[in-house]
Design goal:
Blueprint: H1 9-17, H2 19-51, H3 56-71, H4 74-87, H5 94-120, H6 123-131, H7 136-166, H8 178-189, H9 192-235
């Protein structure tokens, strides 16, 4: 008689015999995450620049976008794209919904990161660029954006980690992602323990290197800043 222990050896053996489902789900999650991240970066850069524009209308458009996507739960946005748009005659695949839905959602957060990065650059540099005849676009492209990249990299990496984890919402629309694969296998096999442990480990494999990079890079930036502060004291 098989053991009823939720983590019995036979349960693990059965899971690895059906591991193809987890592999395909892992690959789908990776694909959605990469494309959604690319979309969110594009949107975030545009929203961040608009948020700091001199034009009030452009700033207002950016603010409305950020407030809408930050204050409506992602699961509602995904349901709207899956059911609401379908009722209006626009039927999107689960994969497309995942990329667009997660990308739009995190684009709002990345937009705030970019906005903070732009504002962190001393205003005098913008004024100096304008004095040299640079346009607003040229100032952003050649002066502001290159300088802010170093400072916003840690929060951007954290957003990438959150984005990967948030792809799990696709399970609610049968998105064939990792979470859906784990839930489907657990439902028909009743191997809930091993199924969710393995799913968690696979998400960990994706997220942990990014989180570690973010932490170490941020520590490096702080260390470099402290060295810059200490140099005048040493010279004195």
């Amino acid at each position: 008689m098989k053991s009823t222990n939720p983590f019995a050896l036979w349960r693990w053996e059965d899971l690895f015999q059906n591991f193809d489902n987890f592999s395909s789900g892992f690959l789908r999650t990776l694909q959605v995450a990469i494309l959604a991240l690319a979309l969110s970066l594009i949107i975030g850069i545009v929203i961040g620049i608009l948020s700091t524009a001199h034009n009030l209308i452009l700033r207002s458009i950016a603010r409305v976008y950020v407030e809408i996507f930050q204050n409506i739960p992602l699961v509602i946005q995904i349901f709207f794209m899956y059911n609401g748009l379908a009722m209006a005659g626009l039927v999107l695949s689960e994969f497309t919904i995942g990329v667009v839905g997660v990308g739009l959602y995190h684009g709002a957060y990345i937009g705030e990161v970019v906005r903070a990065g732009i504002l962190s650059v001393p205003k005098g540099q913008q004024e100096a660029a304008y004095a040299q005849g640079f346009s607003y676009t040229q100032t952003m492209r050649y002066i502001i954006l290159p300088q802010m990249v170093k400072g916003i990299l840690p929060p951007l990496t954290n957003q990438a980690v959150n984005l990967i984890k948030n792809t799990s919402v696709l399970a609610i629309i049968a998105g064939a992602d990792l979470m859906y694969a784990a839930d489907s296998y657990a439902s028909f096999s009743l191997n809930y323990g091993p199924s969710y442990v393995v799913a968690g480990l696979l998400y960990f494999i994706l997220c942990f290197p990014l989180a570690t990079f973010s932490r170490k890079y941020e520590e490096k930036l702080k260390k470099n800043d402290s060295l810059v502060v200490d140099i005048p004291e040493v010279m004195e």
